[in-house]
Amino acid sequence: MRVLICGGDGYLGWPTAMDFAATGHEVMVIDNYLRRTIARSTRSEALLEAPNLDDRAELFQSIAGHRIEVRIGDCADPTFLNAVFSSFLPDTVIHYAEQPSAPYSMRGFHEARLTFDNNLRVTFALIWAILQFKPDCHMVKLGTMGEYGTPNIDIEEGWIDIEHKGRKEKFLFPRQAGSLYHTTKVLDTDLLWFYVRTYGLRVTDLMQGPVYGLSTDQADLDDRLLPNFHYDDIFGTVVNRFLVQAVAGIPLTVYGKGGQTRGYLNLRDTLQCVYLAATKPAKERELRIFNQFTEQFTVNQLAERVSRAGNSLGLDVAVQSIANPRKELEDHYYNAQHSGLVELGLKPHPMTDEVLIGMLERVIANKSRIDTKKIMQRVRWA
Question: Is 134 assigned a catalytic role?
């Protein structure tokens, strides 16, 4: 296939590009370095400095022999995007090109507006590029489990059958996002559903849980090919934050009661899921939704896992509950269905002690680069 990856410089974008290239597909990546720019402006740089996309692509080709074409530009700019689309004519477009941080979107008006404008404009521009230049192109869109919130009923896989006053209909599962970032993802889903119904697009929307991990078959070839690893309170996931706190000797900071339950998955499983979705595409006029995670557990359970792995390395990890900077339920029912990707062929990699120890060892090797001022919460929802 000809695969266009929008947001190819990101934590998921770059490993995805290498994965598709290594399996024989023709790959082009687009990025305008928005995440890097925001990270610098908020003092949220990654633990490991990554080369720019052109240098990464050249390095990957020299080591692995696979070519990745690079275009630097803004996917929200239809002039730029249309030029790329009309020349490359992708069979599949993988849409990662969004401002990815919930805390950043909640910092203030400027950050909220940037998140809103960027995320929706990119999705809208991609829709119209497909309609104009490659109507049969399959879009694989990265959504988030955060779209659903934490309802007091089982979370279905994207859709729900409702019976009301003797009549039945199938609807998108109700969304109730907990941040402006997650709300833009809800709006993405609604926008895509409209264009699927109206113009016959083919879309797979992946409702992804928090991802962890650095190791992939391609990234392990050279440390300079590793994905970015953010551990700060703005771009870092709770897993990364806990791992760095364990190494830095800072108690793992559990927000509130720690009963917040989420679905997690290994980076290797994200690559599997995206590849399966792309190579087994949605049908014409189908918005196919998968809940993309492999395990679910509470923040307290995650802290226990990281603590156990850290203590096995002699780190003497402590856990501390702090006031929750977010507006969220801290103890709630959570049962999300997630069978679709397994049925497509997903082979999960669980979060074992061995996996956590491997990540801790990478952090330990770069302990001198840790900036402890980035770890504690700097953004509050209220």
Answer: no
Asked about 237 being catalytic, the answer comes back as: no
DSSP-derived pairing of the beta strands 167-172 and 159-164 = antiparallel
Which residue range forms the structural domain that includes residue 89? 2-230+264-293+338-348
pTM (two decimals): 0.97
Considering its fold, how many domains does the chain have in total? 1
Residue tagged active-site, from 144, 150, 261, 294: 144
- Residue 289 CA to residue 60 CA, distance in Å, equals 32
**What whole-number distance in Å separates Cα of residue 338 and Cα of residue 340?**
6
Is 356 inside a domain boundary? no
Choosing from 185, 204, 261, 264, the catalytic residue is 185
Residue with tokens 């290498």: 18
The whole-number mean pLDDT for each consecutive block of 10 residues of the chain, a chain of 382 residues, reads 98 98 98 97 94 98 98 98 98 98 97 98 98 98 98 98 97 97 98 98 98 96 95 95 97 97 98 98 98 98 98 97 96 97 98 97 96 91 87
C-alpha distances (whole Å) from 153 to each of 147, 166, 173 are 15, 21, 11
Q: Name the catalytic one among 11, 104, 148, 181.
A: 181
CATH number at residue 66: 3.40.50.720
The burial class, CB within 10 Å (0-12 / 13-18 / 19+), for 121 is middle
Residue 185 is among the residues annotated as catalytic for this protein: yes
Helix (H) or strand (E) segment spanning residue 161: strand 159-164
Helix (H, G, I), strand (E, B) or coil at 96: coil
Residue 40 lies in a domain: yes
Unique residue bearing structure tokens 């999300």: 336
Side-chain half-sphere exposure of 71, counting CA atoms within 13 A: 18
Give the span between the Cα atoms of 165 and 179, in whole angstroms. Answer: 34
* Cα–Cα distance measured from residue 143 to residue 357, given in angstroms and rounded to the nearest whole number: 29
Residue written as token pair 């269905």:
337
Residues 9, 34 contacting (CB under 8 angstroms):
no
